[in-house]
Structures are given as structure tokens and as C-alpha cells.
Amino acid sequence: MTNLLLFWVLEGLLLGVWSKETCPRFQKRSLSLGGHVGFDSLPDQLVSKSVSQGFCFNILCVGETGIGKSTLMNTLFNTMFEKEEATHYEPGVRLKPRTYCLKETNVDLKLTVVDTVGFGDQVNKEESYKPIVDYIDAQFENYLQEELKIKRSLHDYHDSRMHVCLYFIAPTGHSLKSLDLVTMKKLDSKVNIIPIVAKADTISKSELHKFKIKVMSELVSNGVQIYQFPTDDEAVAEINGTMNAHLPFAVVGSMEEVKVGNKLVKARQYPWGVVQIENESHCDFVKLREMLIRVNMEDLREQTHARHYELYRRCKLEEMGFKDTDPDSEPFSLQETYEAKRNEFLGELQKKEEGMRQMFVMRVKETETDLKDKEKELHDKFDQLKRMHQEEKKKLEEKRRDLEEEMNAFNRRRVAAQTLQAQSYQTTGQQPVKKDKDRKK
Ligand SMILES: Nc1nc2c(ncn2[C@@H]2O[C@H](COP(=O)(O)OP(=O)(O)OP(=O)(O)O)[C@@H](O)[C@H]2O)c(=O)[nH]1
Ligand SMILES: [Mg+2]
């Protein structure tokens, strides 16, 4: 029956009777329910599940030592996280993560704040961005490794990927430092960057206005992509659109409470007046808190996963040789990729093996020739020594012969002398007197 229906549909498509829109197989029919079924509770189910699981949010604070990173974090979450100060004598940039469990009403938030200790303190700042890039990549890699596991547990995995980077710009009133531009350029494809002008109470209103414009134009001219608050969701399109125009936010941080009128407010007190942190005419702190926490926290998490992590994952898998399509743009499955990689690997292995065999044969030949040369050398040496030895022997032989002849001649002379002496004693009738001395001789 199904086959018959399929044949009928296919025939209709081939004959051009139906387009994809009019074909019954592709058409969706809207039906009204006879009564309440209950799937309208699906959003509530999602909310309840998410709330029970809890949320996590990871903030990377990049900025020079003492620029006000910790104070701003404390002010943003209205919590005293830490008071520890970094020294200006760090040999390099070091990333320091700290995780806190926070609860607001019934929502649990696992917040991780990562600090860049020693940023901007070295004489040579060329490599300052590297530890930050490496840290972000390491968090992506951890997540990828978890995803690639056969037995995954992503639901209770502590996601340490950086959801946002608050980039603290010094309120110089001039322009961005090259360290800022280089670092932001290196980070913009890896994390959502929100630039902020720190300690905005130390710069005048008109200077701040000009500085903000300058910073934005420098970011644009250097092709630095900062995070744009999304405007595709109608509910937040207007506020996000307006806030995009306020970037970079000029912020002031403080946990000090000052009485203004009859209210205690967070502020910084100076001899000439009070800077109220949450007063929008004093600074953009509220704008930052609204955008970062109240409106776009979920979008930042989503962008991290869908854009930045996706890019990392794609590059990493491509690097490993995985691809979705073959050279003819035909789908290429994981199995095929695995087979192709396996064959490629085996081919390479064979090639290497062959190469090694040839090298081994060559080495053996070389060693053989070397040994032969050495053998010949030894033979030559031996022959030479033999010749020398024979010559020496010959010489000694000649010397021995000479000495023998000399000895024979001496003996003959001695015998003749003795005979002569005996004859002379016989004629004179004397007895030979042998003195001890002569005998010895
Ligand atoms: N004028 C002004 N001073 C601030 C502001 N925020 C922080 N400070 C002061 O700046 C000093 C350093 O602030 P921290 O928050 O410790 O700065 P940090 O960037 O965390 O410093 P390290 O962690 O040591 O690198 C402190 O004396 C703060 O009171 C601000 O918005 N305006
Ligand atoms: Mg700090």
C-alpha cells in the first residue's frame, strides 16, 4: 500500500503534475485539536528541567593589573569574591580561574571568573595574548574530548568554555594600545568580546564621549569583531539595538555604600562629589549588567556553543582529516572517512616500512663496504709488517752468520796460539805457570 502511494507521488512529480509545495507527501496540514491534550506545557517542562539542572556562566576578564577587574566582578554580582591583588612582577601572563556557586531565588548559577594575572606588566608584550588563546582553546578541547567519548556525560559535565570576555580598556582618552588591538584581534573568533572602558570616573564626560567613538572606529578599522547584542528576537531587539550603539560601556566599580538622600547606594566618594555606580548618568554600569546578565546571558552561552565552539570543532576535525563531502561534493560519511584515513595510514605505514627496509639494505651495504675497506687496510698493514719482519730476520741472519764466522776465526786463532805456545814450552822445557788472573781471563 505504502509502495503504491510512493509510486503514485513519484509519478506525479516526474510528470510535473505536482510541485514540491502542492505534493501531498510534502504538505503539512494544520488541524485543530478536539480538546486539551497538554503539550502546551512543553515550555514549562523545559524551564523546570533547566532550573533543576542549574546554569553555568564563565567570564574571562582581560585587563592590566589593577585596572579594576575584581572590583567590577564584585559589583556586578553584588558579592565579595576576592580582594587578592596581583603583583606587577609576573614574568608572563597567567590565567587564574575561580568558580563560585551562586543562588538567586531558586536558580543556581555556577559562575567561573577567569583573571589574566600579569597582563600588560612585561617589557616585551608580544606574546601576552598567547596564554589567553591557549586557555580558551584548552576549554574547547576538553569539551570536544568529552563529546567524542563513547560514553559521554555532557549533562553533568562542567562546561568551562568562556562565554564572554570583558576586555578592560584603560581610560587614557587617547586611543587603544597596540596590546589591546592585537589581543582582541586574536580572541575575536574564539570568544564573545564586550569591550569596556574601566575606571570611567577618571575621565571627563566630553573626553569619554570622544574616546568611546575613537575606540569603536579603531576596532572597526582593525577588523576586530566584538559581540553584538542580538536584534533578531523581537522581545529584546529594541533594547539590544540601542545598547549596541553605547559600546564600549564606560564602567565604574565599587562595593562601598554611600548615603545619597535617604538611600544607601554603591558609589565612589571623592572630595568633590559622589559617583553613583547604578546611576546611568554617571556611568554605564547598569547597561553592562542588564546586557550581560539580565538580557543576553543565554545568547552569550548559545553563541559560544554555536559559533565559537563550532568553529574550533570544525577546524579540529578537519585537521584530523574528517570531512562532510568528497571532492565531488557528495556526502562523505564518518565510516568512509575512517576507512579512507585507515587506508591512508596503512599506505603511509607501508611506504615507511619500504623506506626503512631500503635504508637498512643501504646501511648494510655501506657497512659491508666499510668493513671490506678496513679488512683490506688490515691486510696491507699485515703484509707490510710481514715484509718488515722478514727484512729484519734476514738482517739478523746475516749478522749471526758474520758473528759465527768471526767466532770460528777467533777459535782457529786461539787453537793456533795454544799450539804455538805448547811447542815453545816443549823446546824450552818450562812448565806453563797459570796465574789466577790469566785463568780468569
Ligand atoms: N577610580 C576608580 N578606581 C577603581 C575602580 N574600580 C576599582 N578601582 C580601584 O582600583 C584598584 C584596583 O582594583 P582591583 O579591582 O583590585 O583591580 P584588578 O584589576 O582586579 O587588579 P589585579 O587583580 O591586582 O590585577 C583598587 O584600589 C580599586 O578601588 C573604578 O571604577 N574607578
Ligand atoms: Mg583582581
From TrEMBL:
PROSITE patterns on file: G_SEPTIN
Annotated region described as Disordered, given as residue ranges: 375-441
Keyword Iron: no
UniProt entry tagged with the keyword Signal: yes
Biased composition (Polar residues): 418-431
Keywords: GTP-binding, Nucleotide-binding, Signal
Domain Septin-type G: 53-319
InterPro entries named in the record: G_SEPTIN_dom, P-loop_NTPase, Septin
GO MF terms held by the record: GTP binding
Classification via CDD domains: CDC_Septin
Biased composition, class Basic and acidic residues, residue ranges: 375-403
Signal peptide start-end: 1-19
Family: Belongs to the TRAFAC class TrmE-Era-EngA-EngB-Septin-like GTPase superfamily. Septin GTPase family.
PANTHER family according to UniProt: SEPTIN (PTHR18884)
Record's protein name: Septin
